[in-house]
Fold:
Amino acid sequence: MATLTLNGYRLQIRFVEVELKNLRLDPANPRLHSSYLTHELPASPSQAQLVRILEQLPEFDSLKEALVRNQGCFQPPLVTNDNRVLEGNRRVAAMRRLLSENKKSGQWSTVTVQQLAKKITDAQEKAIRAKFHIEGMLSWDSLSKLTEYLAIADRDGVDSLAGMLSRPPKQLEPLLVAGRSIRLFSQAYPNLKSQDLLLVLAGLCGVKQIEPNLVISTSQRCIYTHIDDERPTHQTFPLAQIMRWLAEGRFTASYNDGTRNHTIKPSKVASEFRRVREEGHEAMLHFTEPEGSLTKALAFIEAKHPTLHWRHTQALKQTLKFMGLLNQMKPIKRDENPELHVQATACYHRLAQLLGIHQR
Structure:
């Protein structure tokens, strides 16, 4: 009998052919996390609801085509001893669609699966999901990945997640704060289903990018804890207040000043909100007043400081602000920290462009 090695333990599995209709999709599938956060799925979804969400994934049609080209399932799904799918939910959903489209052929009525020989614990099930979805680096959406990162940290500890991502535990603090803040927002505002809003909240926590690679930007961070009673003095606004602003659309709404329409990309919200805060009280009033918004505050700043010289001056002031910190750091070596080296090189190239320095 074959075995699956999991955290030092060997779980026995057997290859068996089962009726496709007898397999049950897994409501705890990590790829569904974002659908729970945006309330597209209820807390206890039906099998039909799970199928509907899986069929909406962008890779669903290409997966169907791959199954047809292969004339079957190219990798047996992993199922529990009572036929609940732990890994391979998308494949099972795609085969069910093929079965419904080709009822007469009977080709897709059965499938070979890897079935666990014995019942396993909830902790082992969670570890299997992490093994296939996180360590396997399968592509999935940012919110689901963020939620699974938080689940791993809560279950196995931050050190375990840090080892998985090859990051120092302290560096992952913004990621965990973002996950907990998004969870609170989803609970407080269940009718808001926009993933962009949740990713804006993550950006305000310092998480600039999750997928395809995790990028943390501490300079853009304005949320340092999800617990308002414990927030530090440099977290000026309570999380509850920021969530209200987010729900009201202040961070993402467009603004028309009579001459043109001002819009903002969700990925730019954190950096532009920092710019408004640094500009001072008057700019913030355009954000906090009734009918105020981030774009309205930015339009005020642009009208107040329209010259390129002023923008260059402000940029240089910010650059000089961090020069003292940079001068205390050791050189960034490509072989020791390739991701940080890429980011630093990008900064260098941008400065070279601004100064007209020709590079070989």
Q: What stands out?
A: The first helix runs from residue 33 to 37. The two ends are 60 Å apart (CA to CA).
